[in-house]
């Protein structure tokens, strides 16, 4: 049966969710301003969420810098701000639903082993597709590995998961940075292809969740109705729809905007040491300069 477009919520809620593992750059500024403008266009509001689930990379000084940079850009958001590090119990409860469905299995493979055993197939992020090495381990072998403290992560059996969900799709709005409140386009239905991700990690070795599990759990908890983010996360929506369906979570509407590239036409990135907003501020750029540079002509 043809799926009907979702009803418009009484009050749309969006979010900007940076990770505090470095300083914000122009790409983050674009995403934050895009969220603000989309919320205004829809007559809703937006929340700030700090995705600090990774204890090794997340730093308090980066959280403070996020607040400072966004305030400098003229943005305001409701308090208190949700920190993922405060919600680890919620992720464990969410994962338990997947365990109860028989969809998670332990994986003891290292990254090196996965590289050595995988084929040429890659997931949408370019990583080697997991070859299923641990998928059919016997109970005794699993128990022995756990008893000796061998590092373990838990993967989603995507074949079993899709047998439960059936074909999936998501609703997407076109990505427009401007306000344009008088002309709201209806969302378009986009088919999902979650099988291209293979058996993704749901519970990591170092923390009780993964990006995919944390995002869908927090979006549901915060009542997020519209998810706006860069096109580099478009493929992730496939896996998020799988988890939302399995855990019976609400389905947001999505919008994926263009990315901000450097002079070499590569995506701005913390890992590549792209120039930070703080550095641009010290160089004399004003918030209005940033707005105009990114194509946001209104406040």
CATH architectural type: 3-Layer(aba) Sandwich
Secondary structure category: alpha/beta
The description of the largest β-sheet is:
3 strands, parallel
DSSP strand count: 10
The first-level CATH class name: Alpha Beta
What is the H level of CATH, i.e. the homologous superfamily?
HUPs
Number of domains: 1
Question: Oligomeric state of the chains?
Answer: single chain
Question: Strand arrangement, largest sheet?
Answer: 1-2-3
Strand content: 5-15%
N-end to C-end Cα span: 43 Å
SSE order and pairing:
Blueprint lengths: L12 E4 L9 H17 L2 E6 L9 H13 L9 E2 L4 H13 L3 E4 L3 H7 L21 H9 L5 E4 L1 H8 L3 E4 L15 E4 L9 E3 L7 H11 L4 E5 L5 H11 L6 E5 L19 H6 L4 H7 L6
Helix pairs in contact: 7-8
Structure write-up:
- The protein has 299 residues and is an alpha/beta fold.
- It has a single domain, classed as HUPs (Rossmann fold, 3-Layer(aba) Sandwich).
- The chain contains ten helices and ten strands.
- The strands form four sheets. It has a three-stranded parallel β-sheet.
- The chain starts with 12 loop residues before the first strand and ends in a 6-residue tail after the last helix.
- The mean pLDDT is 91.
């Amino acid at each position: 049966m043809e799926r009907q477009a979702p009803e418009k919520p009484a009050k749309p809620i969006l979010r900007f969710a940076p990770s505090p593992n470095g300083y914000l750059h122009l790409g983050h500024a674009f995403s934050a301003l895009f969220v603000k403008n989309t919320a205004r266009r829809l007559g809703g509001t937006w929340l700030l969420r700090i995705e600090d689930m990774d204890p090794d990379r997340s730093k308090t000084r980066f959280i403070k810098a996020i607040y400072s940079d966004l305030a400098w850009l003229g943005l305001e958001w409701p308090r208190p701000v949700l920190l993922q590090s405060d919600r680890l119990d919620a992720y464990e409860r969410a994962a338990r639903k997947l365990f109860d469905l028989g969809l998670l299995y332990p994986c003891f493979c290292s990254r090196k082993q996965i590289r050595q055993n995988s084929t040429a197939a890659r997931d949408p992020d370019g990583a080697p597709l997991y070859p299923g090495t641990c998928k059919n381990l016997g109970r005794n072998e699993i128990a022995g590995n756990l008893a000796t403290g061998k590092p373990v992560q838990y993967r989603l059996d995507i074949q079993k998961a899709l047998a439960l969900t059936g074909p999936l799709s998501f609703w997407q709005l076109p990505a427009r940075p401007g306000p344009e409140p008088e002309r709201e386009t209806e969302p378009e239905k986009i088919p999902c292809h979650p099988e291209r991700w293979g058996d993704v990690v749901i519970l990591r070795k170092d923390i009780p969740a993964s990006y995919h599990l944390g995002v869908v759990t927090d979006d549901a908890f915060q009542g997020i109705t519209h998810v706006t983010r860069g096109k580099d996360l478009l493929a992730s929506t496939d896996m998020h729809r799988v988890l939302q369906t399995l855990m019976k979570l609400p389905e947001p509407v999505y919008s994926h905007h263009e990315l901000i590239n450097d002079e070499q036409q590569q995506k701005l990135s913390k890992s590549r040491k792209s120039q930070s907003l703080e550095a641009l501020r010290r160089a004399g750029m004003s918030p209005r300069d940033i707005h105009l540079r990114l194509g946001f002509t209104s406040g």
